[in-house]
Design a protein that fits this description.
Elements: E1 19-21, H1 24-31, E2 38-41, E3 44-47, H2 50-63, H3 73-83, H4 92-100, H5 106-115, H6 121-131, H7 140-154, H8 160-172, H9 175-186, H10 194-204, H11 209-219, H12 225-240, H13 246-258, H14 265-278, H15 283-294, H16 298-310, H17 312-316, H18 321-327, H19 336-351, H20 355-368, H21 378-382, H22 384-392, H23 394-405, H24 410-425, H25 435-439, H26 443-456, H27 460-469, H28 476-479, H29 481-495, H30 497-511, H31 514-536, H32 547-570, H33 573-577, E4 588-589, E5 592-593, E6 596-597, E7 601-602, H34 614-618, H35 620-631
Helix pairs in contact: 2-4, 3-4, 3-6, 4-6, 5-6, 5-7, 6-8, 8-10, 9-10, 10-12, 11-12, 12-13, 12-14, 14-15, 14-16, 16-18, 16-19, 19-20, 19-22, 23-24, 26-35, 27-29, 29-30, 29-31, 30-31
């Protein structure tokens, strides 16, 4: 065995290469040991394989660090190695811990270190899982202790699955250890050891599936609800893995059906998840799933959202896929995880060009699960990926806005308002109605479209773009010219006079047709006449607010703005990942990297402003009442 002298550069550590350059002292030391493990060519050390290099480097670390009983130096050294090592495949840290395991029970040691909070749990599990293939044997009691120690820290994290997957790979070659683990945890199964029960059962099912089925069916009626729930979980996994013999399939499915109504919540939920996960391969379970979806069972809907996302390819081949997808519209907004799944499913479908299917799903979700009037932008937060992609597509965007604004559904109307607000934040103000969609509207539809637009659109540029786009639809001279002139004269022109006049002048120069010119001249003339008349009215000085009142209003407005800014900062991703440090010299951004502060960069001022309707400033209450009146109009109302 080659023993590394202190402070030598023997075997410079790397996981990316099988060779490295040598210093003169290293060359002299290694020359006498050249053999099948490594060679020296032109002052460069070459290992025969990555595995051999890892083995030698691990031995170097092991023999260079004497272990003290009860100390955690070996674990700290392992974590240091892991930090500089590329993850995946054969790793030095795994081979190093396998050497340490000859003297110390590393599983017990890792459990003790986790319990004392001396290390990060996932760092420890990562190192231990790298050692699993190289350990001479697994002590079941130590394995149970480690699982119990890590449970509270990892129970809600998907990364824990990686550790148990690799443990399962190790147990495949050790059925006796697997059975011992099962017998050890089964008697007093709890949440901390439940994963070992399921893992052992699934692993054994590869060789003795019938024995596992019989064991799980026997455990379902057990008085311990944790054991019962995990037995059902095992049955569901075995159905998906197609390891349930035909002779026992009907009994397994019937067991799942009977426990859907179980009073114990965990047992009921695992039964539903098992039914959902097996619905793709078993028609009888698909029928049971359809029954749960008709009742809008939240657990079934949540499990289905995960299935359609994770098993997308298999699920799409099922004849009930479209029906299942539409059923997810019943998901409540409070089920955030399931809504995230739905968002990713719809996003993927939209990217594939299935626009109609996605639009139908979004509309159904809005109608079935109304958005809160006090939080109209909720849709843009919940289905953010899908809607962002939809809003970037000009054709889909214009079609969606036209369709939702002419709807009698209050939910779709509020969603249209939320989307228009989102578009304004994205600085997308040039919006048009879809000519193909509006072409099929009758007179009542067009009137309702304009009324609802007056009820939900707040920004002048969006207003003008939408209204003027009605001049381009088929048969516009007979169908929309008079409506456009009226709304420009009596509504938009009075709220945004300067913007309206400028836009109409630009329209005249662009189009140049007599009818367009005549319409623009009449609207501009009406706006000028209206404001000239206002200017001639006498000012009532008694209604002019005092200076003190103006100051109070300004202070109150500043407090309100500060409050909303604080709320916005709390939901800002940037604010969550950076820290704010007051600087005397002004505002700058800087980073802390590798133990030192980097040079600050001055922050540039960024401003975003919008023009509010004139009547909003003059009479906010009256303006909102007018908008509300327009929003509640239905098709055909006088």
């Amino acid at each position: 065995m080659i023993r590394r002298p202190p402070r030598s550069t023997l075997f410079p550590y790397t996981t990316l290469f099988r060779s490295c350059s040598l210093t003169e002292s290293d060359y002299k030391l290694l020359k006498a040991h050249i053999g099948s493990e490594f060679s020296i060519h032109k002052n460069t050390l070459h290992f025969t394989t990555v595995e051999k290099r890892n083995e030698l480097v691990a031995e170097h670390y092991y023999y260079d660090n004497e272990q003290e009983p009860g100390a955690f130096d070996w674990l700290k050294k392992a974590l240091e190695i892991s930090k500089i090592e590329k993850r995946g495949g054969d790793r030095v840290v795994g081979r190093y811990l396998a050497l340490v395991a000859r003297d110390i029970d590393i599983l017990i040691g890792a459990a003790q270190a986790i319990a004392k909070k001396e290390v990060r749990v996932f760092d420890v599990l990562d190192a231990i899982q790298a050692a699993l293939p190289h350990l001479d044997n697994l002590v079941v009691s130590s394995l149970v202790a480690l699982c119990e120690a890590q449970h509270e820290y990892t129970k809600r994290d998907l990364l824990r699955g990686q550790f148990f997957n690799l443990l399962g790979e190790r147990l495949k070659s050790e059925p006796d250890t697997c059975r011992e683990t099962l017998e050890t945890v089964r008697g007093g199964l709890n949440e901390k050891t439940a994963s070992l029960y399921t893992l052992s059962m699934i692993t054994l099912s590869e060789t003795v599936p019938l024995d596992v089925i019989i064991q799980a069916l026997g455990d379902v009626p057990d008085a311990n609800p944790v054991l019962s729930a995990n037995a059902i979980l095992t049955l569901g996994r075995l159905i998906v893995l197609e390891r349930v013999p035909d002779t026992h399939l009907a009994k397994v499915i019937n067991t799942l059906r009977l426990n859907v109504k179980n009073a114990e919540e965990n047992i009921r939920r695992e039964s539903i998840y098992a039914i959902v996960s097996g619905a793709i391969s078993q028609s009888s379970l698909a029928d049971e799933l359809d029954s749960l979806l008709e009742d809008r069972d939240i657990d079934a809907l949540s499990a289905l959202s995960g299935l359609l996302l994770q098993e997308s390819k298999r699920a799409r081949s099922h004849p009930s896929y479209d029906q299942w997808l539409l059923s997810l519209a019943a998901l409540p907004a409070e089920a955030e995880g399931a809504i995230d799944n739905l968002d990713m499913i719809l996003y993927a479908l939209f990217k594939e060009g299935k626009h109609d299917r996605v639009l139908t799903c979004v509309e159904n979700w809005l109608v079935i699960q109304p958005i809160d009037v006090s939080n109209k932008r909720e849709i843009t937060k919940l289905l953010d990926s899908t809607l962002h992609e939809m809003l970037q597509d000009e054709k889909i965007r214009s079609r969606l806005i036209a369709k939702w604004l002419v709807s009698d559904s209050r939910e779709l109307l509020l969603a249209a308002e939320a989307i228009l607000s989102e578009l304004n934040l994205l600085n997308i103000t040039s919006i048009r109605f879809c000519a193909e969609t509006v072409r099929d509207f009758d007179t009542n539809d067009l009137v309702l479209l304009i009324r609802h637009m007056l009820g939900v659109v707040l920004y002048g540029e969006q207003f003008l773009s939408l209204v003027i786009s009605l001049l381009d639809i088929e048969g516009a001279e007979d169908r929309t010219y008079s409506l456009v002139e009226e709304v420009l004269t009596n509504e938009i022109g009075r709220d945004f006079p300067t913007e309206t006049v400028d836009r109409l002048k630009s329209l005249k120069s662009e189009r140049g047709s007599k009818k367009i010119n005549g319409l623009c001249d009449r609207v501009i003339g009406s706006i000028d006449t209206y404001f000239d008349a206002l200017k001639k009215l006498p000012r009532i000085k008694e209604l002019t607010p005092s200076r003190d009142l103006i100051q109070k209003i300004s202070k109150q407005r500043a407090k309100t703005m500060a409050k909303y800014q604080k709320v916005a900062e709390e939901s800002s991703v940037i604010r969550r990942i950076v820290s704010v440090v007051p600087l005397k010299a002004g505002r700058s951004s800087f980073s802390f990297f590798e133990g030192e502060y980097r040079e600050p960069s001055p922050l540039q001022l960024f401003e975003h402003s919008v023009t509010l309707p004139r009547r909003f400033s003059l009479d906010a209450v009256g303006f909102e009442m007018s908008r509300l009146r327009y929003r509640i109009f239905k098709k055909g109302d006088k």
